[in-house]
Amino acid sequence: MGEEVKENTINRDCSSVANTMGDANHTVDSDVKYYTLEEIKTHNTSKNTWLIIHDKVYDIRSFLEEHPGGEEVLLEQAGGDATESFEDVGHSTDAREMLIQYYIGELHMNDRKKESTTETLITTSGEGSSSWTTWLIPAVAAVVIGIMYRYYMLEHKSS
């Protein structure tokens, strides 16, 4: 019960801070702040560093000096979407859990990348065509090799 009171107090504090900011770019929906891509782009310096990872916004300025890969790597991505770079490096579970403490909000719905339906269709049709090609190509290759072997053996027997 004590935890519920503490959690509700934190949620009220967050929403009151968001409401007093008066910025049109911030909206309160279940105590989540939404930031536009334009606003995030302005936070690209070593004293004010924000990143987007998986449509979540992180203020990582206090982490710059602690980053094992150096602060330059983070500053290159500052003010933008670092999802691909973050995933390419293959961060540990601990690194992913550390992100929680730097979380400040979400990327506004209008600025999120939309998944392409053509990619899904291509992937689906690719899976269907690969099922018959996985056995057809080796079968054709085996038949050709068999014919070549028989032809070669018949030629050597007759000579």
UniProtKB/TrEMBL annotation:
Sequence intervals crossing the membrane: 132-152
Record-level GO cellular component terms: membrane
SUPFAM superfamilies xrefs: Cytochrome b5-like heme/steroid binding domain
Entry protein name: Cytochrome b5 heme-binding domain-containing protein
Cellular compartment(s): Membrane
Pfam family, one: Cyt-b5
Signal peptide positions on this chain: none
GO molecular function: heme binding; metal ion binding
Keywords, ordered alphabetically: Electron transport, Heme, Iron, Membrane, Metal-binding, Transmembrane, Transmembrane helix, Transport
Family assignment from sequence similarity: Belongs to the cytochrome b5 family.
Residue ranges of every copy of the Cytochrome b5 heme-binding domain listed in the record: 32-108
Organism expressing this protein natively: Umbra pygmaea
InterPro entries, A to Z: Cyt_B5-like_heme/steroid-bd, Cyt_B5-like_heme/steroid_sf, Cyt_B5_heme-BS, Cytochrome_b5
